[in-house]
Amino acid sequence: MGRIDTLLAAMTIEEKIGQLNMVASTLAVTGPGQLGDIHEGIRTGRIGSLLNHWGADEVHAVQRLAVEESRLGVPLLLGLDVIHGHRTIFPVPLAEACLFAPDLWEKTARAAAEEATQDGVALTFAPMLDVARDPRWGRIVEGPGEDSWVASQIAAAKTLGFQGQDLAAADSLAATAKHFCAYGAVTAGREYASVDVSERTLREIYLPPFSAAVAAGTAAVMPAFIDLAGAPMTANAPLLQGWLRRELGFEGVLISDYNAVAELMNHGVAADAVEAAALALKAGVDIDMTSDCYVRGLPEALKRGLVTMAEIDVSVRRVLDLKDRLGLFDDPYRRGSAWPHGARDAERRELAREVGRRAIVLLTHRAAILPLPPEIRRIALIGPLAAASREMLGPWASAGRAQDAVSILEGLEAALPQCRIDHAPGVDIAGQDTEGISAAVDLCAGAEVVVLCLGEAAAMSGEAASRADLGLPGRQRELADAIFDLGKPVVVLLSSGRPLTLPWLFERADAVLATWFLGGEAGHAVADVLTGRFNPTGRLPLSWPRLVGQVPIFYRQRPTGRPTKAGEHYSSSYLDVPATPQFPFGHGLSYSRFALFDFKCDPSSAKAGEFVEVSVTVANDSEVDGEATLFLFVHDLVASVARPVLELKGVRKIDLKGRERGRATWRLSTGDLSFLGPNLNPVLESGRFEIHVGQSADPAGLLTEVIELTP
Ligand code: BGC
Fold this sequence. Notes:
Layout: H1 3-10, H2 13-19, E1 21-24, H3 38-43, E2 49-51, H4 56-69, E3 77-80, H5 93-97, H6 102-118, E4 123-124, H7 148-163, E5 176-180, H8 199-206, H9 208-215, E6 220-223, E7 227-228, E8 231-232, H10 237-247, E9 253-254, H11 263-267, H12 273-283, E10 288-289, H13 293-304, H14 309-325, H15 345-359, E11 361-365, E12 378-382, H16 389-392, H17 408-415, E13 420-424, H18 437-443, E14 449-455, H19 476-484, E15 490-495, H20 503-508, E16 511-514, H21 522-530, E17 594-602, E18 605-607, E19 611-620, E20 626-636, E21 647-656, E22 661-669, E23 675-676, E24 682-683, E25 687-694, E26 703-710
Parallel strand pairs: 1-2, 1-10, 2-3, 3-4, 5-6, 6-9, 12-13, 12-14, 14-15, 15-16, 18-26
Antiparallel strand pairs: 7-8, 11-16, 17-19, 19-22, 20-21, 20-25, 23-24, 25-26
């Protein structure tokens, strides 16, 4: 008998259920309700895993209880939300998505895994793969943006980065793909609300990132809090057992979200903890995170015949198997002992700076005001986000510390030692006091440029942080208007976890940069871009709305019978606002200027199984060295199901010196032209396809060729 069989055979029912029971430590709070003494539960084998408990000593202390004092000595599994860095904090995921760079996505996850495992953590609740098209939903900040193809690339890169080559390695962190699935489609963007999307949308948009995570070997998956058309995900057997386990062959662990098993009662599908436990277990949920329903409910569920011992054993085996794969049986203290804290800190901070500046998106740039000239001598740095180092860490900062975060003020001071920088917040982020505005305005009098730092507090996005108004909170608009009224050159830095709808601001500012929450190196990253030490490359992973009334807004629209047309009354549009976004998906300016030409698809007709080489010349039409980003989209012109007008199939980045030219190429497979047919099975239909390349999803900037797929 193997180790796991032997253990299973020796376990009492309480010990088995203990393996399925994850409880929250008191070191951090990420949900409602806290447990008392965890030590007794660990000693008696009633707790198999912990979340929110980290630090090598702290982890080893509880691990010792499990290994040395519990009857069977099964090690604990330690989980934590290591979302965008652990001690070194990288940009929030939405900002990181702006990189369109799988190698860097992987690197930051690897760095986070190295740091978290130094703190004894073995499992992260990441990557978050919720495609989101509604910025009212605060959790848009945690995810990949609006596109499923991008989300799938991120899924693969992050899973690989966290887990490394060998899950048993001392610096490998088991990944949890979450939140399965379609959480981003909550009704009206309201947190935890119901989701109702078609089977097609589910399969085309929301499931593919999870397939990618499973293909990359994710150790765990977390069902979402929500119900999908009445079937809460925590008990959604067709998707968990059917799609994930049977169709995809996922053999890892399913971990409920925080308290979600108990919440099956609130959803109205379980009458008591016994039914809730039975429903979740039968749906394939192996670990009950914090709700205590498995402990309280499964023994009774067994008696009532709602679950069988064999079903419990399957879940226990999966949990033990994960612990085994993580090397916890061989050496429960491996994580946290391999090397001292602080090793390679400087390298990770450098990575945070690099990723931080790459996440910045230059949204508008009217007066060629940037980069700031080297001879600049006086800047007024105004706004409540200018010196707000804690905010820079964003809403999920793991073990990141505010004192390690570089504010925008500090970053600019370090980059421009010869320049006088006067700072005043003017107003609080969300307060109603406007008294500081006049002092802030006065401070601008002698400045050559005003840098205005506006936006949200970190806690205004993330979990339980939906907003119905996507404007600037508090009295920031009044501050901004007073500054604009001075007629000075104004650069606006927008810190936020979501796109903000500020058409008036984009109108008035000379330049606006989306600086999101860039993590510990935020200030340096911002300074690198403002001074031109780094030429911006970030691109929007979502369509930025003009007004809240436009959401959900995304580029991958189906053609309508009456397409949007200016001046055409009976067309798909609004009376009061253009149908287009403020900034399209993929948008992001550079200090260079790029032009595309000589677009070719070769051959222009292909059969199933063949490839088409797609290529385009990119010219840097400026003197400034820069990096161009190119997007490849396809559009099936006539198909058995109406296909989106644009579907992303590839991204290329190309470095070009001033006045240099280069050629970007893709090998488009005919498989990229397949789609889910009328019965939701993949089909490849012959016919004509538009192939587009462009610097964003803006139709006006796309180059187009038509290819034919022949039978
Ligand atoms: C969140 C998850 C998170 C968990 C543990 C929940 O409230 O939805 O994303 O992993 O808490 O902190």
